[in-house]
Amino acid sequence: MTMEQILLDIQRQWLGTHFVYYQSNHEGALIDRLQEIGQSGDYDGVVINAGGYAHTSVALRDAVEYVQQSGVPVVDVHISDIYARDAFRQTDLLTDVCTHAIVGHGTDGYKEAVEYITALKR
Q: Per-residue pLDDT tens for 68-88?
């Protein structure tokens, strides 16, 4: 299942809600985008799957923390169970600066993250 298909399913489930999808393989681009979100005041939440950067990037962690401090909840999603993988993948630098983490629920984790953010906004 592609991310575009996942997003389409989410959009169908939450009709009337505007979702913005952003993907980059470049750490700096992700950081820039998070900083824009933190400055804009236009977002109800962020769902992030940082992939390998979750295990290695202090700079991305700082950007996520900035978004959180700006009042935008961030939910950390890992499709696989990182705690059942290689030892170096079991450290997630983002978890303690996120509002919530969803680990090992497959692509359903994205929907769970949206449900979590939606519940916070009620």
A: 999 999 999 999 998 888 888
Contacts of 86 (CB under 8 A, 6+ apart): none
Write out the H or E segment, with its range, that includes residue 110: helix 108-120
CATH code of residue 75: 3.40.50.9100
Q: Domain total for the chain?
A: 1
Please state the φ and ψ torsions of residue 36, each to the nearest 5 degrees: -60, -40
One DSSP character per residue, 29-69 reads: HHHHHHHHHHHH---S-EEE--TTHHHH-HHHHHHHHHHHH
Q: Read off the pLDDT of residues 37-58 as tens digits, 9 standing for 90 and up.
A: 999 999 999 999 999 999 999 9
- Placement of tokens 């824009």 in the chain: 36
Domain that holds residue 44: 3-120
